Amino acid sequence: MRYNNFAMRFTLILLLAYYFIKPTSAVSQNLLEIICHRTQYPEICKRMFNDDPRTSAATPDQLSLISISFMYYLPDSTTTTYINVRNNSPGGQLRIDARNCLSNYYAITKKSIEAYRLSAILMYTRINQFTESERLAYSCGAQAPIKSSILQIINIDIVFRCQIAKSVITYLKES
């Protein structure tokens, strides 16, 4: 009788533990392939994830936070470049473009922070900030003249990072 009571308690504890501490699976290369295939540069996308030490032990939910954090790897150099182009331009359209791009970049950063907050509480259906962020980055690239290729390169990078985050969020919404 005592053995059966112990066995039932042990089984109940295991079931409760399983319910509250569900086993998670780390992100597979196959999942990275699926996610990165939706971006403009799949190989670079996979390399970004594989180069990030957090990816190897990440769950798909954590992958969303990692992908959004890719937006934060830019700030110092991006902000500095926009400010340098703005301040060192002889004036005219290039200075205006750099100022507009800087303003757009601040808006993109703010949207990324909001997306990160929503992702942290698993509210993927409410994350739509990256579509607007892509639009802001594209509009900056469209405004910049050809001679300001540095602005265009930064904007391509921002758009690509938005695509990565959008792809992960889309995958999580569909799962």
Task: Give an account of the 3D structure.
This protein is mainly α and 175 residues long. It is built from 8 helices and no strands. The chain has helices at residues 2-20, 29-37, 42-51, 60-69, 75-88, 93-120, 129-143, 149-174. α4 packs antiparallel against α6, α5 packs antiparallel against α6 (93-120) and α6 (93-120) runs antiparallel to α7 (129-143). The termini are far apart. Residues 14-24 have low confidence and may be disordered.
Number of contiguous helices: 8
Strand content: under 5%
What do the pLDDT scores average to?
A: 80
Helix content: over 70%
Tags for this entry?
elongated; mainly alpha; 175 residues
What's the arrangement of secondary structure elements?
Blueprint: H1 2-20, H2 29-37, H3 42-51, H4 60-69, H5 75-88, H6 93-120, H7 129-143, H8 149-174
Helix pairs in contact: 2-3, 4-6, 4-8, 5-6, 6-7, 7-8
Brief characterization of the structure:
With 175 residues, the protein is an all-alpha fold. Helix content is 75%, strand content 0%.
